[in-house]
Structures are given as C-alpha cells and as structure tokens.
Amino acid sequence: MGRDPKVYTLVEVSQHNNAKDCWLVIEGKVYNVTKFLEDHPGGKDSTDDFEDVGHSTSAKAMMDEFYLGDIETSTILTKVKYTPPKKPHYDQDKTSEFFIKLLQFLVPLLILGLAFGIRFYTKSPA
Predict the structure, then answer these.
(1) DSSP readout, 59-109?
(2) Nearest to 31 by CA among 76, 78, 73, 70
(3) Which of 45, 65, 84, 105 is the most exposed place for a label (fewest CB within 10 A)?
(4) How far apart (Å, rounded) are the C-alpha atoms in residues 95 and 103?
(5) 75 neighbors 53 (Cβ within 8 angstroms)
C-alpha cells in the first residue's frame, strides 16, 4: 500500500534556495536538486527551463531518486496574457487638439520669420 505524496506550497519550496538545501518544481512535482546546485538555482517552478534544456532519458529517470512530493497548484502563479487596450474610434471633437498642435508648430516659425524680417529691414547699409 503506497502512501500519498506530501503536498508543498510554492512558498515552502521557495524557502529551499540555498547551497545546502535546494528544491525545484518540475511538472507539478517537487525535487531536491541540492546535488546539482551549480546547474539549478532552486526555489522556483522550473518546468519550462527543464524542458528547454532537453535533459537526457537517464536524467529524467534519475528524477525519481530526488522526488519529494507534489506542489499545491493553487499556489503557483498563472501566466496572464497581455491584451492591449482597445483604441478609441476617431472622435471629431478632438480636432481642436490638432489645431493646437499646428499652432504650436507655426507660431514659433512666424516669430522667427518676423525677427528675420525686422532685422533685414532695419539693418543699415554699411
């Protein structure tokens, strides 16, 4: 008769993140990877990292030796997909904003032109 595996929270796993005691979560299971510390940072869900590295069949077989229990899935943060806000439809009442921006561009040009004109017409011939 097999006993039920111990269930850990992510907070409990995250407390085991040092050189003497290092745990990881891989595919919902908790493993003690202290022996492999140089390659495994510990204290987090490393399922994606484990799969990305492409561990050998023998490495996957060794996992049973380091198995501690299961992770309480409700304690793992879910990834939220970002959805950008919807763009508002063109509002004709915002034409005043366009007019203001146009003036902010044209007024300095007019002042600059006026300054050159005054300088040109008031300059005495040498």
Answers:
(1) HHHHHHHHEEEEE-GGGSPPP----PPPPPPP-GGGHHHHHHHHHHHHHHH
(2) 70
(3) 84
(4) 12
(5) no
107 forms beta bridges with: none
Residue 15 pLDDT exceeds 50: yes
Q: Could you tell me which of 57, 12, 61, 20 has the C-alpha nearest to residue 37?
A: 20
* Measured CA angle at 45 (ends 21, 52), to 5 deg: 110
Find tokens 């850990």 and name the residue.
Answer: 8
92 vs 83 pLDDT, higher one: 83
- Supply φ then ψ for residue 15, to 5 degrees: -75, -10
For the chain, count helices (H), then strands (E). 4, 6
Residue 93 tokens, joined: 């009442």
Question: Model confidence at 107, in pLDDT bands (50, 70, 90)?
Answer: very high
pLDDT in the model for residue 63:
81
